[in-house]
Design goal:
heterodimer; A: about 325 residues; mainly alpha; Fumarate Reductase Cytochrome B subunit; two-stranded antiparallel sheet; B: about 130 residues; 5 helices; binds protoporphyrin IX containing FE
């Protein structure tokens, strides 16, 4: 259900471009207005979601992490997995964001003959996820050649490294191959493994199809259906400098790529893709485990009205003295 | 908001990153490339003969594919003559055909390539046509 729905949703986006650009000639709408609107939705949506998350009180620091917490001097403290200081937290967070450390600990449960339950390590999701996210990032950074003028040297270096094997012309980028392979792997994993297929929803398939279609259309545009890249850069630089122009003669494949990207950007803040910002707000990752050293007052604690002993004594001092009960203040 | 300081720093980094291209270009319109086809070799041709190997629209997008094919045909298949779609025959050579007409590499090839950050590695080996510094 979710699979077919997502497939047809992405197909519909492509059909919309054919109708809008090819038939109705709405180049300005698809080349300028929709991208701007999507970009604004992206920024405002992300800020809105993060602020909304920020307003939720943080619970007690979660001590059940994967390492030994700081305790007695002769017990070895795991400084990264169970950090005590902010520096430790930063290191743990950086490793999580850059290397997906918690996914590395992924396990597979199997029922063997016996019957015996056994757990083994599986690294495939970690590897596929890492390949996917890193190539996505590199492709995104390379795309800044379309948005910066003059193009900074680091981007040119990245292009040269990415095309290191100098296969064909235009040069084949290795990241393009790995990216499409990784998206395919992540998709097949959802449909082939029964348990994962069972919990997969349209919200899981749609981003995969969308990103797959973005990669597919980009690869088609670069290697097969050539369009006027110089014209495209005029369009993108027009967007960047707020003086939009829509040059003639840019192929439909570019508008398909662009609408799919716009859809991704607009969809981002309202989808699971928000994990890009959410990972930084994960309580099990961003809180130092210093429960025993630093007092943590729950923000939602109800203000309890207390009546201390001193106040009690003030109220009843005379009566207490009269019956001979010792008092602290005379 | 709880931990407002840290969250706002994070959001500022995010906004800074997405705003970077807009700031970098400074809102100025940038010059678009203008490849010049006024080399002596081209001007020698009759007015209506001043055409590329293939139609301009095709060359614009596919010139690197054409060059790649030429290279394969010459180096692998020992086939040196290219028959264009209009029937004209050309010797397949980067230096002796393309660069004979387009002897102004800096004002032609590089004009587009610098704009789109393309760095063909061909010139590691092939000789760049001699040009007067301008
Ligand atoms: C989510 C972001 C995006 C992804 C994942 C993506 C993906 C891709 C991929 C995989 C390619 C193949 C060639 C290459 O790797 O350079 C490509 C090419 C291309 N993309 Fe994107 N793209 C994205 C955003 C954009 C945007 C915002 C634009 C412009 C408005 C754009 C314009 C292009 C163009 C013009 C090409 C062809 C480049 C060439 O012929 O060398 N892309 N894209």
């Amino acid at each position: 259900m979710g699979l077919l729905f997502s497939f047809f949703a992405v197909t519909a986006l492509i059909v919309i471009v054919f109708i809008g650009v090819q038939a109705a000639h709405l180049h300005y709408l698809f080349g300028v207005i929709i991208p701007y609107a999507a970009f604004l939705t992206f920024i405002i949506g992300i800020i809105y979601r993060v602020v909304k998350w920020g307003r939720i009180p943080v619970p007690f620091r979660i001590p059940t992490t994967a390492g030994q917490e700081k305790s007695l001097p002769w017990i070895k403290h795991n400084k990264i997995d169970n950090p005590f200081t902010s520096l430790g937290v930063i290191v743990r967070m950086a490793l999580e964001v850059l290397l997906f450390r918690s996914l590395f600990r992924n396990t597979k449960t199997e029922l063997r003959d016996g019957p015996k339950l056994s757990y083994g390590s599986t690294k495939w999701l970690w590897l596929g996820g890492l390949a996917f996210h890193w190539t996505f990032l590199i492709i995104l950074i390379r795309h800044f050649r379309l948005f910066l003028e003059p193009v900074p040297i680091p981007i040119e270096i990245l292009e040269a490294l990415d095309g290191f094997f100098q296969v064909g012309a235009p040069v084949l980028y290795i990241t393009d191959l790995i990216f499409l392979g990784a998206v395919t792997f992540l998709f097949l994993r959802r449909v082939i493994i029964p348990q994962i297929r069972y919990i997969s929803l349209a919200a899981d398939y749609f981003p995969l199809f969308l990103i797959g279609a973005i990669g597919g259309s980009g690869v088609l545009m670069r290697y097969f259906l050539k369009t006027d890249v110089v014209g495209i850069k005029q369009l993108t630089m027009g967007l960047i400098t707020f003086s939009p122009v829509v040059p003639q003669g840019i192929g439909i494949i570019f508008y398909i790529h662009l609408l799919l990207v716009s859809a991704l950007f607009a969809y981002f803040p309202m989808s699971k893709l928000m994990h890009m910002a959410g990972v930084f707000l994960s309580p099990t990752r961003n809180l130092a485990n210093n429960n025993r050293a630093v007092r943590h007052v729950n923000p939602w604690n109800y203000p309890v009205k207390v009546h201390t002993y001193e106040e009690y004594e003030d109220d009843f001092r005379d009566k207490m003295k009269a019956v001979g009960i010792p008092v602290e203040k005379e | 908001m709880y931990n407002a300081g840290k969250i706002i720093i994070g959001l500022l980094i995010f906004v800074g990153l997405v705003a970077f291209p807009f700031v970098y270009s400074g809102g100025k319109a940038t010059a678009k490339p203008d490849p010049k086809v006024d080399t002596p070799e081209i001007l020698k041709l009759a007015e209506n003969e001043r055409k590329c190997v293939e139609p301009k629209a095709y060359m614009k997008g596919e010139h690197m594919v054409l060059l790649n094919d030429w290279r394969d045909w010459v180096v692998r298949d020992d086939n040196t003559i290219y028959t264009a779609t209009d029937g004209k025959k050309y010797t397949m050579s980067l230096q002796n055909t393309c660069m004979k007409c387009h002897s102004n590499k800096k004002k032609f090839c590089d004009e587009c390539h610098n704009y789109t950050a393309v760095k063909p590695y061909c010139w590691d080996c092939h000789i760049v046509p001699k040009e007067k510094e301008t």
